[in-house]
Fold this sequence. Notes:
Number of domains: 2
Low-confidence stretches: none
Mean pLDDT: 94
Radius of gyration: 18 Å
Helix content: 25-40%
Number of helices: 5
Number of strands: 5
CATH topology of the largest domain: D-Maltodextrin-Binding Protein, domain 2
Strand content: 5-15%
CATH architecture of the largest domain: 3-Layer(aba) Sandwich
Distance between the termini: 14 Å
CATH superfamily of the largest domain: Periplasmic binding protein-like II
Shape: globular
Largest sheet: 3 strands, parallel
Structural class: alpha/beta
CATH class of the largest domain: Alpha Beta
Order of helices and strands: EEHEHEHEHH
Strand order of the largest sheet: 3-2-4
Amino acid sequence: MFKVKGSTITYKELNDLKPYRIGVVRGFVNTAEFDAADYLHKEEVTTNLMNIKKLLAERVDLIVADKFVGFYLLNKYLPHMFGQIESISPPLQDKKLYLCISKKSDNADLKVKIFNKGLKEMHEDGTFDKILEKYGF
């Protein structure tokens, strides 16, 4: 979830979020517990970018969005506002990211090997951390 930077909103469990207006994207699956929490004040929009704009305008108190997606959209479409919102902990869910390469694709094993080698090199030389820092991570 995201909040406006400087906001004092914190939470440990979903019940703590009862007083807040929370922006969500219509049709998105968040977590089973969150989606079933009908005691929360959820406001639906059709895109994450719309939610970010509502948050920046303080028309909602929090928004639910993937951390990487939220910061990407902010950086791409509202770079002058970068630094105005922040993610909060704990995340609703911690999901791992995977790269998928079909075993049927040409040189699939080689592609995986090259990707893993490049990722390892980026971690070792600091490039990975510089990229994360550039985009607010």
